[in-house]
C-alpha cells in the first residue's frame, strides 16, 4: 500500500441487536488491541496521516517554535508552605518534566546571593521567624541555601517511554513522600514510598492503583483506591508502612456499578472523606484516620438520590459537617449538621416512610439561588471559602465563622451573592483556591483570564486583600495585541417562561482583526458532564490569533457555565441541544461578521469529540475542517457494554440504552459512528492514543473507516495515534507542545491562514 493511500481495514461483520434493532458493525474487530494486524493497521494510519499532512510540517515546526520561545522554559512555582517546609517546583530548559524542591521554613529569604563552594548561586539564610507565611523569593537558576530536590520527575521518566505522576502525598513532618506513577499511559498506577531524609525509596510498592495515595498525618498508613475491570474505582485499601501490599486491609467495597469513589482528607486531616457518586447523586462516608481499626461511617446513602459533598469543620469545640447539596434546588445550598444526625437517618433508609421524607440536613447557611451556582467550600480554622458561579464566572466569596454560628443559633440564611470576596478588574476570569492550609493566616488562589497569564495571590483571612506573589512570565508577547469579548447566540429554543435561550460565546482575536466577515475562525466546544470552559490563558492559542484566526469558545448546553439547569438541558434525552447550540454559535459568528462562512473550523476533545462527530454529520457544509481529539464517537456501542471502561458510569450522563428503548433510539439518532452518511465531509483529523482507558482508540479507528467510505468530497480523513500515550496524549511538556502544534497546523492550513499577520 502506498503511503498516500488511505489504509483500508478488512470488513468482519459483527451484529449487535437491542430492542429489536440490529446494527452490523464491520470494524469491531479493530478492538483487539494486542493483535499484530490491528497494530499494523494503526501504524499505517500514522503513516498515511503523515503523508497527507506532510506539507504542514513547516507550519507545525513554526508553531512549535513559537510555543517554545514564548514559554519561559527555566521557571518555577511560588513556594507553598506545609508544616515546616516550603515546597515548590522548578522547570529546566530542555527537560520535559518539573523538578520538585523544598526548603526548610526560616532558612531561605529574598536576599543577596553569593557563590557556593561548587560555584552555584545561593541565597542567604532567612533571619525571620519559623512561623512566617511570606514565601521565600525563588529565582530561576538560583539555588536557595538549604534547598533540596526531593523528586526529580525527569530522572524517573528517563527510564520509561511514557511517564505520568498520579499524585503525591506527604506526612505532617515532611519526612515521607507517597507517590504514584503510570509508565504506560493506561492510568494504572504503582504507589511507592520515599524517605525524604535519606532520599531512598522503601522496598514496598503497590501495583494497579487508581489515582494517587493519601497519607494520614503520621505517615504510618496510606489509603488508596483500586479499580475494577471497567476502570471504576470501587475498593478502598489501607496500607501500613513497612508491610507487604498483600497484607493491606480492605476498608470498603462499593458494588454499585454506577458509583465512582474518590477519597481525600478533611481540612484538619483527622478524617478521610469518601464520596461515591455520579453526575446525579452521591453516597458519603467518613473514616477516622487516627484509628487504624476504624470502619467507614455511612452518612448519606445513594438511595437518597442527593447530589452532595461533605466538609467536616470544628466550631467552638463541636465537630460539625458542612453539606453542599441540591435538596433545595439544582444550584445547591449549604447546610450545617452533625455526623450523628445524619447516621441516625441513614439507619432508617430502608423504611418506606424515610424514603418519602427529605433528609434533615440541619440548619440552612446559604440558601439556593436561581442565578448563583454554589460549587463547594474550603474549610479553614479562620473562615469558610465559598466557590460560586454567577453569569458564567466562578470566583470566591468568604463566609465568616460568626455567620455560621448565627445560622446554628437560628438566624436566617445569608445569600451567597451577598458575601464579600476579593475583587478583580477583568470581566471574565477564573479564580480558584489552590492552597488553604487549615491553620494558616492566609490562603492562596490562582487567577487568570483569556488574555492574562496565571497570577498567584495570597489572601489574608483578616483583610481579604489579594497580595500578588507572581504572574507567569511570557517571552516576547505584547498581550495588549489581543482582545476578548462575549457575544450571545440565539439557540432558537425558549424557556418555559417564553424567554429566548441564548448561548454564550467567547470571542478571542488579534486587535487587527475586525468583524468584517472575512476572518478564518475556529470554534471550540465541549458541552458535557457539567464541565465549564472557564477563562484560561494559553500560549499555544496565541499562534492562531497571530495568524488572524478568530478563536471562539461556544459555552453550549451540557456544560456548567450557566448553572445546573444549563447542564441538565444538554444531557440524556436533551443531548442534541449540545450539538444544535454549537451549530447556532457557528451561525451567529458568521452573522455577526466574526467568521467568513467559507473559512470555519471546529475543534473538540473526548466528549467534545463526540460533539465534533455529531456536528460533522448534522452540518458538514458549515466547516472546512474538524479536529476531534480522543473522540467519543462510538458512544452507543461503548455504553451498551457495561464491561467496557466507564460504561455503566455513563448511564447517568447519557441514559441507559440497555434497559430503556427510548434512550437507545435517541442515542442511535445522533451516535456519530452510526450516522455517517454519503455527503461531502470537511477535512477531518481524529487524534487518539493507544493506551487511552477513557475513550478507547478503537472508536476513532472505526469512525475514520466509515467516513472515508461515505466521503463524497475531496477533503482528507486522517487518524493520528500516539502509540505510547494515554487520554492526555504523550507525556512531557515538549511532546505536548508538538501535539498542539500538529493540531493547530492542521486547522490553520485548512483555514488558509498559515502566515502570521504583518
From TrEMBL:
Residue numbers spanned by region Disordered: 109-135
Entry keyword Hydrolase: yes
Residue span, Peptidase S9A N-terminal domain: 7-469
Any Gene Ontology biological process: proteolysis
Record bears the keyword Hydrolase: yes
Matches recorded under Pfam families: Peptidase_S9 (PF00326), Peptidase_S9_N (PF02897)
Domain Peptidase S9 prolyl oligopeptidase catalytic: 540-753
Family as reported in the entry's similarity comment: Belongs to the peptidase S9A family.
Protein name in UniProt: Oligopeptidase B
Amino acid at each position: 500500500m502506498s503511503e498516500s493511500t488511505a489504509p483500508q481495514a478488512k470488513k468482519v461483520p459483527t451484529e449487535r441487536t437491542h430492542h429489536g434493532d440490529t446494527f452490523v458493525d464491520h470494524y469491531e474487530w479493530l478492538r483487539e488491541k494486542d493483535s499484530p494486524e490491528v497494530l499494523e493497521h494503526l501504524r499505517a494510519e500514522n503513516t498515511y496521516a503523515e503523508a497527507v499532512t506532510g506539507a504542514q510540517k513547516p507550519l507545525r515546526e513554526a508553531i512549535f517554535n513559537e510555543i517554545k520561545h514564548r514559554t519561559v522554559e527555566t521557571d518555577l512555582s511560588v513556594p507553598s508552605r506545609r508544616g515546616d517546609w516550603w515546597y515548590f517546583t522548578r522547570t529546566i530548559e530542555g527537560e520535559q518534566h518539573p523538578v520538585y524542591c523544598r526548603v526548610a521554613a526560616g532558612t531561605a529569604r529574598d536576599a543577596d546571593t553569593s557563590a557556593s563552594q561548587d560555584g552555584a548561586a545561593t541565597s542567604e539564610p532567612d533571619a525571620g521567624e519559623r512561623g512566617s507565611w511570606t514565601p521565600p523569593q525563588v529565582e530561576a537558576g538560583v539555588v536557595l541555601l538549604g534547598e533540596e530536590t526531593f523528586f526529580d520527575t525527569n530522572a524517573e521518566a528517563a527510564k520509561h517511554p511514557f511517564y505520568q505522576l498520579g499524585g503525591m502525598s506527604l506526612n505532617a513532618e515532611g519526612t515521607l513522600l507517597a507517590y504514584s506513577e503510570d509508565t504506560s499511559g493506561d492510568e494504572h498506577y504503582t504507589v511507592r514510598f520515599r524517605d525524604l531524609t535519606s532520599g531512598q525509596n522503601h522496598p514496598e510498592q503497590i501495583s494497579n492503583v487508581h489515582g494517587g495515595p493519601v497519607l494520614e498525618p503520621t505517615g504510618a498508613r496510606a489509603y488508596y483506591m483500586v479499580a475494577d475491570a471497567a476502570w471504576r474505582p470501587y475498593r478502598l485499601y489501607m496500607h501500613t508502612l513497612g508491610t507487604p501490599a498483600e497484607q493491606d486491609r480492605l476498608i470498603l467495597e462499593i458494588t454499585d456499578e454506577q458509583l465512582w469513589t474518590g477519597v481525600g482528607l478533611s481540612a484538619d486531616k483527622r478524617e478521610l472523606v469518601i464520596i461515591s457518586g455520579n453526575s446525579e447523586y452521591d453516597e458519603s462516608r467518613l473514616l477516622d484516620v487516627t484509628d487504624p481499626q476504624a470502619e467507614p461511617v455511612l452518612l448519606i446513602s445513594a438511595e437518597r438520590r442527593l447530589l452532595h459533598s461533605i466538609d467536616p469543620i470544628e466550631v467552638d469545640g463541636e465537630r460539625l459537617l458542612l453539606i453542599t447539596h441540591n435538596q433545595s434546588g439544582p444550584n445547591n445550598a449549604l447546610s450545617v449538621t452533625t455526623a450523628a444526625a445524619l447516621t441516625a437517618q441513614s439507619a432508617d433508609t430502608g423504611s418506606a416512610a424515610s424514603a418519602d421524607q427529605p433528609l434533615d440536613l440541619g440548619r440552612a447557611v446559604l440558601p439556593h439561588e436561581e442565578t448563583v451556582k454554589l460549587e463547594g467550600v474550603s474549610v479553614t480554622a479562620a473562615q469558610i471559602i465559598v466557590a460560586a458561579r454567577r453569569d458564567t464566572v466562578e470566583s470566591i466569596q468568604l463566609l465568616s465563622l460568626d455567620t455560621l454560628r448565627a445560622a446554628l443559633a437560628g438566624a436566617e440564611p445569608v445569600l451567597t451573592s451577598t458575601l464579600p470576596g476579593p475583587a478583580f478588574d477583568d470581566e471574565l476570569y477564573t479564580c480558584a483556591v489552590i492552597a488553604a492550609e487549615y491553620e494558616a493566616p492566609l490562603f492562596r488562589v490562582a487567577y487568570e483570564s483569556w488574555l492574562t497569564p496565571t497570577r498567584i495571590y495570597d489572601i489574608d483571612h483578616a483583610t481579604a486583600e489579594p497580595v500578588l506573589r507572581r504572574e507567569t512570565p511570557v517571552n516576547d508577547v505584547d498581550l495588549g495585541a489581543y482582545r476578548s469579548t462575549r457575544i450571545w447566540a440565539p439557540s432558537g429554543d425558549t424557556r418555559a417562561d417564553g424567554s429566548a435561550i441564548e448561548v454564550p460565546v467567547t470571542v478571542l482575536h488579534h486587535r487587527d482583526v475586525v468583524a468584517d466577515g472575512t476572518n478564518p475562525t475556529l470554534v471550540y466546544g465541549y458541552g458535557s458532564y457539567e464541565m465549564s470552559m472557564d477563562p484560561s490563558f494559553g500560549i499555544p492559542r496565541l499562534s492562531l490569533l497571530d495568524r488572524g484566526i478568530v478563536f471562539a469558545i461556544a459555552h453550549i448546553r451540557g456544560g456548567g457555565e450557566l448553572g445546573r439547569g444549563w447542564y441538565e438541558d444538554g444531557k440524556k434525552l436533551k443531548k442534541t441541544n449540545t450539538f444544535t447550540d454549537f451549530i447556532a454559535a457557528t451561525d451567529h459568528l458568521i452573522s455577526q461578521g466574526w467568521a467568513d462562512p467559507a473559512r470555519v473550523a471546529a475543534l473538540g476533545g473526548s466528549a467534545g469529540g463526540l460533539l465534533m462527530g455529531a456536528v460533522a454529520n448534522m452540518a458538514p457544509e458549515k466547516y472546512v475542517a474538524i479536529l476531534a481529539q480522543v473522540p467519543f464517537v462510538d458512544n452507543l456501542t461503548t455504553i451498551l457494554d457495561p464491561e467496557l471502561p466507564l460504561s455503566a458510569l455513563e448511564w447517568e450522563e447519557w441514559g441507559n440504552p440497555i434497559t430503556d428503548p427510548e434512550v437507545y433510539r435517541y442515542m442511535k439518532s445522533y451516535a456519530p459512528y452510526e450516522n455517517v452518511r454519503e455527503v461531502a465531509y470537511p477535512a477531518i483529523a481524529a487524534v487518539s492514543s493507544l493506551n487511552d482507558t477513557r475513550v478507547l482508540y478503537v472508536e476513532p479507528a472505526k469512525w475514520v473507516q466509515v467516513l472515508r467510505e461515505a466521503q463524497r468530497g475531496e477533503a482528507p480523513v486522517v487518524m493520528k495515534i500516539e502509540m505510547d500515550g494515554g487520554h492526555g496524549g504523550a507525556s512531557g511538556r515538549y511532546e505536548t507542545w508538538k501535539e498542539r502544534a500538529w493540531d493547530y497546523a492542521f486547522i490553520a492550513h485548512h483555514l488558509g491562514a498559515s502566515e502570521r499577520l504583518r
